[in-house]
Amino acid sequence: MLPIYLYGNPVLRKKANEVSAEDPHLHKLIDELFETMNQAEGVGLAAPQIGYSLSVFVIDTKGLKESYPEVELIKETFINPEVIEILGDDFNFNEGCLSLPEIREDVVRKSEIILSYTNREGERKTTHFKGLAARVILHELDHLEGHVFTDRISSIRKMIVKKKLNDIASGKTKPKYKSKNS
Known about the structure:
This protein is of the alpha+beta class.
């Protein structure tokens, strides 16, 4: 398991760079993303969260199935994703993030996304995702743009979680998984 970069680390605020699907290190990176995500008990992980400012993320929604039986089971790799359309109704959900341990906040996102991406096998796909799967994807897309989910909460909620964010950035918060501060 690689360390997960925590809030305050500059790599989390950079826009990720495109990666070549022929990059010889890409499959190793994808394996490391899945292994790190699984060991940290997450449902999604973007390359910037393990220190690589590259446009790659993975998801595996099986971790949501027990609490949310309606979730579509998706285990997928997304390389150089491009949003075709974000649509549907506003959908409020209490989100967390491996890079922001011990913080959960309600975030409003749209309920659907149409996304073009390259999968692990090098196939370019365009897929329509809905519900919680769409939410996980939108959350990971934010990481590729240099955003974290607390950027999407109200100013009042930001003031309330400010101390927790400062504790994470200063190394006072220690998650149960391997991590790295700034």
